[in-house]
């Protein structure tokens, strides 16, 4: 069995933070698709969006997800939009346990409001943008995930503990 764990969810859900901790606890290699794209291109996510638009970024993201999802025994934090393409959803569902980290728009907004690293939220009304993305993507996250964790109002260590319990009972 591949024994991979893939995190999905909106920007600010905690995929990168929690994925890294879970990987350490379970002694698996940790990857983040955004970091992998930055490593390969040598530039930041905002620069990729600026030069290649969202479309160019999605192509790079799809290539990285296809490759990483076929590795063995890894934890992967995907970017929030990774579920948009059907082929990404298929790769994630077929090659590991997918965990959806869920939070309400208000919380996501608070967690991301001071960060300039997310191009989709650099506009006049990031909260409204998050609302729109939540409506569009929540069904897609649910489609791919076999574990859904509500992160609302919970500190990171409590979420990590909850995920480890759920993984044990699979
Ligand atoms: N459960 C939580 N409670 C409070 N803050 C959180 C929680 N999970 C993550 N954060 C914070 O929210 C921000 C976004 O987390 P991050 O892991 O980058 O999310 P994602 O990768 O899903 O976009 C970080 O500053 C992180 O420390
Ligand atoms: O939701 C999205 O479309 C995106 C989420 C980001 O990752 P995080 O979810 O880790 O912030 C990053 O991939 C990019 O800015 C686009
Ligand atoms: Mg992230």
From TrEMBL:
Encoding gene, per UniProt annotation: aroK
* Localisation: Cytoplasm
What cellular component terms from Gene Ontology apply here?
cytosol
Name of the protein described by the UniProt record: Shikimate kinase
Q: What is its EC number?
A: 2.7.1.71
* Matches recorded under NCBIfam families: PRK05057.1
**Entries under InterPro entries matching the protein:** P-loop_NTPase, Shikimate/glucono_kinase, Shikimate_kinase/TSH1, Shikimate_kinase_CS
Q: Name one GO molecular function term.
A: magnesium ion binding
Annotated metabolic or biological route of this protein: Metabolic intermediate biosynthesis; chorismate biosynthesis; chorismate from D-erythrose 4-phosphate and phosphoenolpyruvate: step 5/7
Its recorded reaction(s) are: shikimate + ATP = 3-phosphoshikimate + ADP + H(+)
What does the subunit section of this Swiss-Prot or TrEMBL entry state?
Answer: Monomer.
Q: Where does substrate bind?
A: 34, 58, 80, 137
Q: Name one GO biological process term.
A: aromatic amino acid family biosynthetic process
Chief location category: cytoplasm
Q: Give the record's family classification.
A: Belongs to the shikimate kinase family.
Q: Where does Mg(2+) bind?
A: 16
What is the documented function of this protein? Catalyzes the specific phosphorylation of the 3-hydroxyl group of shikimic acid using ATP as a cosubstrate.
Q: Which residue windows are coiled coil?
A: none
Amino-acid positions noted as binding ATP in the UniProt annotation, renumbered to this chain = 12-17, 118, 154
Species this chain originates from? Methylobacillus flagellatus (strain ATCC 51484 / DSM 6875 / VKM B-1610 / KT)
Q: What class of enzyme is it?
A: transferase
How many cofactor units bind, and how? Binds 1 Mg(2+) ion per subunit.
